[in-house]
Design brief:
By secondary structure, the chain is α/β, with parallel strands linked by helices. It is about 40% helix and about 20% strand. The chain folds into two domains: about 210 residues, Isopropylmalate Dehydrogenase (3-Layer(aba) Sandwich), CATH 3.40.718.10; about 150 residues, Isopropylmalate Dehydrogenase (3-Layer(aba) Sandwich). The protein is built from 13 helices and twelve strands. The strands form two sheets. Strands 2-1-3-10-9-4-5-8-6-7 form a ten-stranded mixed β-sheet, sandwiched between helices. The two termini are about 25 Å apart. Bound molecules: 1,4-dihydronicotinamide adenine dinucleotide (NAI) and magnesium ion. Magnesium ion binds next to helix 10.
Amino acid sequence: MKKRIAVLAGDGIGPEIMKEGLKVLDAIAKQFNHIFDYKEALVGGCAYDKYGHPLPDETKEVCNNSDAIYFGAVGGPKWENLPPELTPERGALLPLRGTYNLFANLRPAIIFGPLADAASLKSERLEGGLDILIVRELTGGIYFGRNKVKTLTLHEGALQGNYAVDYMIYSVPEIERIAAVACDAAMKRNKKLTSVDKANVLESSKLWRKVVTDYVQSHFPQIQLNHMYVDNAAMQLATNPKQFDVIVTENMFGDILSDLASAITGSIGMLPSASLAKTGFGLFEPIHGSAPDIAGLNKANPLAQILSGAMLLKYAFGLNRESKAIEEAIMKALENGYRTADLANKTTQEGKILLTSQMGDKVVEYLMVKS
Ligand code: NAI
Ligand code: MG
């Protein structure tokens, strides 16, 4: 398979961890006979410094001519005080999501078994690790409601600041397309899907529940679907997370639940994400930022970046076997006691604390070992 990948490493630790991500993709290409054609481009603060904009035309052009975007992280203190539209996150990440209509945000909450003791829940609740995928609707709901009712005249009281109003609006096609992404993901995993809403109170949630139910029944009857209210889902995530496999939910609920889910895993340097369009085109990035405090020290954990590469292979190119191979190689490195500084604790053996580049090498090493 031959694919073009836009490589946007960004700022801070971005370039360091991206180097390891590409190292692993190169190893996959070699092992499985693929050609990945990388086109690097500047994004974020470094792009602002060179072109005066965090998402210059040159970079958009590279993205337009690619099959997927592999993204590092952007931002840092140097660019914090720019006008909002020129800051790395507002000026680059949000426009990228908008331009490519990346309406589906996939955020796994994973704990590899060997790291269960580093997580924030009691380790018996996480025995054998944790593997949840949250599919969050990213371009609708209450965060975007205002745009859809622009034509309605707000009541005078709101305009005078006497009260404030937000609209949670969902249309059938918006719910159907996110249900489709969630079903697709569930089919690639364990055919188990939990839809989270507040259908006992909200009209938009009643519609959500009906559309998800109809969609699953008519397209994927083999998927085991259950529904949960969002307040209960939060409690269940915090007490018994292993009951979940794929969770699908609207924008705001997904924002809150995915932060909760990543907090219980205890390590920001391990968690990847994907933002997908209907076409399968997507942007793949670690959930963490540019970590300016450790940039340039070769000690950042590259595993979230490497796992984002695994998601890219799976969701953008359908390369499930290759994606799995990366996850297994990481598992082997962790099982053998290798850690980056952020994962190390008192029990970490001497000599097993690796630098960024050494962890990348280690993953490649285990990738090459036939088990
Ligand atoms: P951050 O995620 O960059 O860092 C938070 C803490 O986690 C720091 O102590 C950092 O050293 C550590 N950390 C993060 N990733 C790590 C890794 N891979 N290995 C080891 N330790 C790691 O969040 P923070 O400090 O709030 O933001 C820093 C900059 O990143 C800001 O400019 C922010 O706007 C930007 N940012 C960018 C994002 C993106 O590109 N999507 C997302 C979040 C923040
Ligand atoms: Mg959030």
